[in-house]
Design a protein that fits this description.
Elements: H1 9-20, H2 27-38, H3 59-71, H4 77-84, H5 88-98, E1 101-104, E2 107-110, H6 115-122, H7 126-157
Antiparallel strand pairs: 1-2
Helix pairs in contact: 1-2, 3-5
Length: 158
């Protein structure tokens, strides 16, 4: 309406900013809206563009790729592509952007590993570490009980 009254875009922007603060559109956007309105366009949405829309990255395809990787974490992008009939780029985008996975040691793992996961993958099996720690603890306990036993025997002999 204000653009139809030939009010400058800066005045419109300042009025929007005074009401909405940081949530107001930037000056360049308001200028673009005013220009479009003066040219006869009354809608603010962009017009449909030529080209192929991205329709392959659907929740169904994302779930399909997730299930394939869940069944075989060592699967390659090419193998997923063959099983899903998706393009290589779409398959890669689903894996990296939507599933947040990256390939480490020929397996897909979450991009954001926890410290526990990072240590388990980079230093061997955590179970082996726990077994070694438990065995060491048992050895220390046996040493302590042997020392205590010998001290008791020595005091009884006196």
């Amino acid at each position: 309406m204000r653009a139809a009254l030939n009010i400058e875009a800066r005045v419109i922007y300042e009025a929007l900013y005074s009401v909405h603060g940081d949530q107001a559109p930037c000056l360049r956007t308001v200028e673009l809206w005013c220009k479009r309105f003066r040219e006869g366009q009354e809608e603010l949405e962009n017009e449909a563009r030529l080209g192929r829309p991205i329709t392959e990255t659907t929740p169904e395809n994302i779930e399909q790729v997730r299930l394939i990787i869940e069944d075989d974490p060592c699967v390659t992008i090419e193998e997923v592509q063959d099983q899903t009939v998706l393009s290589y780029g779409t398959t890669q985008r689903i894996i990296t952007d939507h599933l947040q996975l990256s390939k480490i040691t020929a397996r897909y793992l979450p991009k954001q590993l926890t410290d526990f996961q990072r240590n388990a993958t980079s230093h061997g099996s955590i179970i082996n570490k726990l077994v070694e720690s438990h065995q060491m603890l048992l050895r220390w306990q046996k040493l302590d009980s042997d020392e205590i036993g010998s001290e008791n025997r020595a005091s009884l002999a006196l």
